[in-house]
Amino acid sequence: MTTKTLLAGLSKFVSGASVRWVGCEPNACQRVYFANHTSHLDAVVIWASLPPALRELTKPVAARDYWARGPLRRYLANKVLGAVLIDRKKATVRDNPLTAMINALGEHHSLILFPEGNRQAEIDLAPFKSGLYHLAKWRPDVEFVPVFIENLNRILPKGEILPVPLLGYVSFGPPIKCEADEDKHAFLERAQAAVKALQQP
């Protein structure tokens, strides 16, 4: 059993995540999976929710200040997840997160992205940051798939190390694309609404 298979299985066990595809099916085409962000488990659970062949092509975009802290996290981020680590507070022209994401996409890969930027304690989504829009404009050939994650903030609350045994949910929705004449505000509002629409009643 590989480390990737072990991590995926452990993530599913810990989160108890049920996965549903709504108006969307697993596909090897290039995608950006963009989701709400409530827990450090989010990126791993979305990655683990994908079929094995898609996991190999999909890289989470994650905060360097968290995932580069300690040898285990660095190993998981770099060697297992193949994560794109970005500096959330020290972005510069030379170290632009958008450039890192475009390079990581290349010709074959997909990304997992959290456009709120930081984890939110509540289920209400924070405004999406502009990087999602610029990525959509730069790569109009890529499908942007909304994802809604539920209960992971309660399974691994902020500041806690051990997970609480609850059921989580991961919902993938219909892909969207940025229209040619669509401005940043309109696209980000539509993208946020696409994520919210996946919340189960």
Write up what this structure looks like.
- There is one protein chain.
- The protein starts with a helix and ends in a 5-residue tail after the last helix.
- Helix content is 36%, strand content 17%.
- The chain has 201 residues and is an alpha/beta fold.
- A 7-stranded mixed β-sheet has the order 1-7-6-2-5-3-4, sandwiched between helices.
- The model has no long low-confidence stretch (mean pLDDT 83).
- Helix 1 crosses helix 2 and helix 6 (97-105) crosses helix 7 (131-138).
- It has one domain: Glycerol-3-phosphate (1)-acyltransferase.
- It is globular.
- The longest helix is centred in the N-terminal third of the chain and has 13 residues, at 3-15.
Task: Describe how the helices and strands are arranged.
Layout: H1 3-15, E1 18-21, E2 31-35, H2 42-49, H3 52-55, E3 58-63, H4 64-67, H5 71-80, E4 84-86, H6 97-105, E5 110-113, H7 131-138, E6 143-150, H8 152-155, E7 169-172, H9 184-196
Parallel strand pairs: 1-7, 2-5, 2-6, 3-4, 3-5
Antiparallel strand pairs: 6-7
Helix pairs in contact: 1-2, 6-7
Instruction: Supply the helix-strand structural class.
Output: alpha/beta
- Rg computed from alpha carbons, rounded to a whole number of angstroms: 16 Å
- Provide the CATH topology: Glycerol-3-phosphate (1)-acyltransferase
Strand order of the largest sheet: 1-7-6-2-5-3-4
- The count of strands amounts to 7
| CATH class bucket | Alpha Beta
Share of helix, binned: 25-40%
Major sheet size, sense and barrel closure: 7 strands, mixed
CATH superfamily placement: Glycerol-3-phosphate (1)-acyltransferase
- Write down the overall geometry: globular
Give me the CATH architecture, please. Answer: 3-Layer(aba) Sandwich
> How many domains in all?
1
- SSE order, one letter for each helix or strand: HEEHHEHHEHEHEHEH
**Separation, N- and C-terminal Cα atoms:** 38 Å
* Unreliable residue stretches: none
Q: Count the DSSP helices.
A: 9
Tell me the β content: 15-25%
